[in-house]
Amino acid sequence: ELKVEAVKRPDLQLVQGVPLPSPSCETWDQLCSFQARPDDLLIATYPKAGTTWMQEIIDMIHNNANLEKCRRAPTYVRVPFIELVPPKPIPSGLTQVQEMPSPRTIKTHFPFQLVPKSFWEQKCKAVYVARNAKDVLVSYYYFIKMNHGLPTSGTWEEHFDAFLTGNVAWGSWFDHVKGWWEAKDKHQILYIFFEDLKEDLKREIKKVAEFLEKDLKEEVINKIALHTSFDMMKDNPMANYTTLPSFIFDQSVSPFMRKGSVGDWKNHFTVAQNETFDEVYALKMAGGPLKFRTEL
Ligand code: A3P
């Protein structure tokens, strides 16, 4: 069993104006000079947008829906999180990526401008998953409570304000979704919405498979959709993060696979908060082409 240094929540530290958990900043110089390979695939998201879901979908696509292969290791081993710096002696995401044989699938929460330039020089593909801000705000609230690797964002009211001002790890949701949207036509980036995955999972799996140039039979698509349903992933120890010790992810505070729905914000936002949110949202997203659904 791994002996880990006592987990003390980190602070936020700015990198090019973007708040990150301070340990991730320690490897910033190495991240900048990271050498990508042309067959690297990035899965990029703002936190809580459906990262783990896409990691499972893509691993299933790569393995032709072979369940045994996809149960070979937990999500965070199969698809390492490049900017993660966990407590010692767990190796950093960067080390894990560097030690991984190709073809590599790599997770990042970086806003577009922080992604190591080498990925674009090597013309790597990236799948970006975006989720509506109201549900992300709620999901992030519970996640920060249970994840001791993140700085606290306070009470529900404090978290609400911190999220809207972008004073949370990985910064402003608004800048994140817009930055990747603007980049998507300049690089090989597939932009997917969480709400679309919820609406029609098979349709979206087909989109991802096509983007990855994998020609999958209908029965394989069906199997992937079944295996990546919320209920299946909630019960899958290789996807639900229960392999992490409770002093890192305390799932008695909130399970990682919490609700997996669209519109849970309605159970949390007060009428006044919803008005404040809509005002800020209208200002930040004004006139833009990017449209989100907050209910299905
Ligand atoms: P909730 O907290 O709203 O339940 P990430 O992987 O980016 O951290 O995102 C986690 C969110 O995605 C959680 O949202 C989690 O429940 C949800 N999620 C994970 N797998 C899912 C699936 N197969 N179907 C629907 N939602 C899923």
Automatic annotation (TrEMBL):
It is an enzyme of class 2 (transferase). One of its GO terms (cellular component) is cytoplasm. The keyword Transferase applies. InterPro entries: P-loop_NTPase, Sulfotransferase_dom. Its EC number is 2.8.2.-. GO terms for molecular function: sulfotransferase activity. Residues 38-287 form the Sulfotransferase domain. Keywords: Transferase. Belongs to the sulfotransferase 1 family. This is Sulfotransferase. It comes from Latimeria chalumnae (Coelacanth).
